[in-house]
Design a protein that fits this description.
Elements lengths: L2 E7 L12 H8 L3 E7 L12 E2 L9 E2 L1 H11 L8 E10 L2 H8 L3 E5 L8 H6 L3 E4 L9 H12 L32 E2 L2 E2 L9 H19 L9
Parallel strand pairs: 1-2, 1-6, 5-6, 5-7
Antiparallel strand pairs: 3-4, 8-9
Helix pairs in contact: 3-5
The structure holds S-adenosyl-L-homocysteine.
């Protein structure tokens, strides 16, 4: 069974979007994963097909209605569906490479994309949604966040990455940022590739990569280095 991603959105035309190209797009064509974007608005019942209403207690903006969203979720899932249900939200659990790896090991995900000021709080608990954030900034909707989550998951699915090893050395995989990368030409605008990389001495090359990786992590992301490491 391919990894199944179900996205609930008010903008189904945003999918597959960037996920239809490059690595993720080839994965879709090859049947390694599949994607269904479902329009939340189809589950509106009033004559204006409204999906949002004003916030209780006042305040700016609009809130996605719980009844409409719950119907969309119920229509997209079955009782046997054990896939995690994510709600894109700046208040959510930060997306990390460890979490991405965990999600990519499952059978799929359902992702709810918020809009406006967000969704009615009651539906989050009633439908068991896990709020997930892609960073400490506010987007206008959950769709670009869903692109990010799915892109990160899909590249880890077996059969997606051309060179399977390229997943291993990367930033965050061992709590470290990746070392700098170079390619030909050997000299470019008077700048040389570090000689050790051309030395053919594999032990020295590995050592250099580790040192660079440590140095960069300490300088840029000391928070990634846990005391026990
Ligand atoms: N009023 C909300 C922000 C709403 S932004 C607040 O202050 O928390 C509208 C929608 O965009 C959200 O419902 C969510 O689905 C999505 N979104 C915005 N920023 C996001 C982020 N950093 N990570 C994940 N989703 C985000």
């Amino acid at each position: 069974m391919p990894f199944l991603a179900t996205v609930l959105t008010l903008y189904p035309d945003m999918f597959p979007g960037p996920l239809g190209l490059s690595m993720a797009g080839r994965g879709l064509e090859d049947g390694i994963w599949s994607l269904e974007a479902r329009d939340i608005r189809r589950h509106a019942t009033d004559k204006h097909a409204s999906v949002d209403d004003t916030p209780a207690g006042g305040g700016p903006g609009m809130v996605l209605k719980p009844d409409v969203l719950a119907r969309a979720i119920d229509a997209a899932t079955t009782a046997e569906d054990t896939r995690p249900r994510l709600l894109m939200s700046p208040r959510g659990r930060p997306l990390t490479q460890d979490y991405v790896r965990e999600l990519s090991a499952g059978s799929g995900v359902m992702i709810v994309c918020g809009r406006f000021e967000g969704v009615d709080e009651r539906v989050i608990e009633a439908r068991g949604l896990t709020e997930v954030s892609v960073g400490d900034y506010v987007l206008s909707g959950g769709e670009p966040a869903a692109h990010v989550v799915l892109d990160a998951i899909v590249r880890l699915l077996p059969g997606i990455m051309g060179n399977a090893a390229s997943g291993h050395d990367e930033s965050f995989e061992r709590g470290r940022l990746e070392h700098p990368q170079y390619t030909r030409p050997r000299e470019w605008e008077g700048l040389e590739i570090p000689p050790v990389l051309l030395s053919g001495d594999h032990a020295a090359i590995t050592r250099w990569k580790q040192e660079q990786s440590e140095k960069l992590t300490k300088a840029r992301r000391p928070d990634l280095i846990r005391p026990k490491d």
